[in-house]
Amino acid sequence: MSGVGMQVPQSLLVVLESGTSVTALVYRARPDPPSPMGAFVLAHGAGAGQRSPFLTRFAQALADRALDVVTFNFPYTEQGRRLPDRAPVLEACYATVVEKVRQALPSAGAKLVIGGKSMGGRIATQVAATRSALPVTGLVVLGYPLHPPGRPDTRRDAHLPSVRRPVLFVQGERDSFGTPGELAPVLDQMVPRPAMHVVNGGDHSFKVRRAGAPAQEAVENDIQRVIADWIERL
Predict the structure, then answer these.
(1) Which pLDDT score is estimated for 33?
(2) For residue 229, how many other CB atoms are within 10 A of its CB?
(3) 38 Rama sector, left if φ>0, alpha if ψ -120 to 50, beta otherwise
(4) What is the pTM of this model?
(5) Cα separations (Å) of 134 from 87, 129, 167, 207?
(6) How many angstroms from the chain centroid is the CA of residue 49?
(7) What angle, rounded to 10 degrees, do the helices at 87-104 and 119-130 form?
(8) What is the pLDDT of residue 4?
(9) 113-146 residues labelled b (16+ CB within 10 A) or e (exposed)
């Protein structure tokens, strides 16, 4: 982790087409670079909102690597519901957040990367696949949910060849939602071919068996370095 210390993110209200709104949090690039290398919109997974420890750690760490990072809640999370909204609602929310970030953050004009954890990453790929005109530089997906656990025939990959932007997949070696080996043939069908970073021994949240806190922190630090380096090269 960076030694800069924790920052208090700035709140950003995002009004949706439905008339409702969601809250976004902006983690500014540090330590105060004159021009951040870009903006990264990072969406949460199905079971936890933007203030989950996982998303907060990654947002803070990537901001410390010269990125403006924006997290947000999907409508169901904002409203305190447990069941995720249907895909069209999630996608519309994500697209509106992206437009808000383009307006609010000058760094988005340099590079605008979208992605997220599990479901959030999947929705980011669906947004990119169905909105070819959206000026997205690339995508970073943390634990792509290729299929539900134990149901490898229920696939969520038909749209992926339509993304047509650079993508970085970060996948745990023993991810029950889809291993790197299961994901690799899908990546072969995508243009440009995505990059994949395999977390050795990692599960869906990149937790490694029998790893103590320092070792687990080192695993996450390595992932964050890979993400920042990949975005810098875009």
Answers:
(1) 82
(2) 11
(3) left
(4) 0.95
(5) 18, 10, 15, 33
(6) 13
(7) 80
(8) 64
(9) bbbbbbbbbbbbbbbbbeeeebebbbbbbbbbbb
